[in-house]
Specification:
six-stranded antiparallel beta sheet, 392 residues
Length: 392
């Protein structure tokens, strides 16, 4: 493999890394700029929400931010970008001769001050909802981009298109922006997000751990299943129903008519002595972002392992209800599944003392039974889980 081919492969890898981790796009664009050869580069998207400067390379946006905004929203820029064919790398000069371009107000007032003029341009994708474009730029007094440099950019175009599609798919269903994932992690739940074709587009760390065990739940790039055919059928029926529910009013009636016959909470058997996993299948509406009205929508699958114990925030519990350290420790053990006698032994106190502490806990938390107390603690004071009961 030649050195040039190795550089292209490394740049392609950076592109797919950026698709999965959007904060990597600036470094990815740096690699694209270096490969093609330019003074700076910009990556833009045009959607129903308007034109956006997604990221740039070797250009101070703080210094040129206002000028960049004027460029992106100018009629000249929009008209020129619409002329570039999707999927092909072209030079700016192939659309407008350099001498003609140099005389435009657009160049003199907006492009020349930021050191641009010549550009290698690619439109990785263009659809009904918008398009994206990458421009590798040089000052007008340098040589224009040649065939070899355009070939390098051309080699990246299909990968930029695929990465952009994956990025948009993740953005339409990924709950990280809302903080929901942090809450799910704190409860010790796994999460798998499926697109409208049933393909996983996101798996949390906890979900990855469950899948890696290959004990009950299976998953690959094409879908999810269980180790038992009957449970897999039930899971797929639940996913299909949730997809219809996520598709909006045009599909909701069909989904509701099926919901009575489909259990949207699926038990998944595991090897003894492990108890079953519980999969909760729920619609994941996308508020119109990328969803097609009347078609199936995205689905979230929550994974709960009843064998995993959660940790109770005893400090928070004590502060909220005025419990002593011993009282909050006892309450945490009760929430973890121990009876009063087992909790007393764990704390090194008598059963009578444990019962006295438990009575105080009931009074201070205004609960009357252990079930009420456990519900309160798990709903309000559960911290990230600490492993299975058999591990402790």
């Amino acid at each position: 493999m030649t050195a040039g081919a190795q550089v292209i492969l490394r740049t392609v890898q950076r592109i797919y890394d950026a698709a999965m981790e959007p904060e990597e796009w600036p470094q990815c664009l740096d690699a694209v700029r270096d490969l093609v050869g330019g003074s700076h580069a910009v990556f833009t998207t045009n959607s129903l929400d308007g034109v956006q400067l997604s990221t740039c390379s070797r250009m101070d946006v703080r210094q040129h931010g206002d000028r960049c905004a004027q460029i992106l929203h100018s009629d000249f820029w929009t008209e020129q970008m619409q002329r570039f064919p999707a999927g092909a790398a072209r030079t700016q000069s192939s659309m407008v001769p350099v001498k003609d371009y140099e005389r435009t107000d657009f160049y003199q007032q907006l492009i020349r001050p930021i050191g641009g003029g010549l550009a290698a341009v690619a439109v990785p994708w263009r659809g009904t909802s918008g398009w994206s474009a990458v421009r590798i730029c040089r000052p007008l007094d340098e040589r224009d981009f040649g065939a070899e440099e355009l070939n390098r950019l051309q080699a990246l175009v299909p990968h930029l298109a695929k990465a952009g599609k994956l990025n948009r798919r993740l953005a339409s269903v990924d709950p990280r922006a809302t903080g929901a994932l942090a809450a799910i992690d704190a409860l010790g739940l796994g999460l798998i997000l499926l697109d409208r074709h049933g393909r996983p587009v996101y798996r949390s760390e906890r979900a990855e751990a469950v899948i890696a065990e290959r004990d009950g739940l299976l998953a690959d790039a094409h879908g999810i299943a269980t180790t038992l055919p009957a449970q897999t059928r039930a899971l797929h029926q639940a996913i299909a129903t949730a997809m219809l529910l996520a598709g909006g009013p045009d599909t909701a009636d069909a989904a509701l008519s099926r919901a009575a016959a489909v259990m949207l909470r699926i038990p998944v058997s595991r090897r003894p002595p492990n108890g079953p996993l519980i999969l909760s299948v729920i619609p994941a509406p996308t508020d119109g972002r990328g969803a097609v009205p009347g078609e199936p929508g995205a689905v979230a699958v929550l994974i709960s392992d009843p064998d995993r114990r959660c940790r109770i925030d005893t400090a928070g519990l004590a502060s909220a209800y005025g419990l002593t350290r011993r009282e909050s420790d006892l309450a945490a053990l009760i929430a973890g599944g121990l009876g009063p006698a087992e909790a007393a032994e764990s704390l090194g106190i008598s059963i009578g003392t444990a019962r006295h502490y438990l009575k105080q806990v009931f009074e201070k938390t205004e609960t009357h039974r252990q079930a009420e107390l456990v519900r309160l603690l798990l709903h309000s004071f559960a911290a990230p889980d600490l492993g299975t009961a058999t591990e402790r």
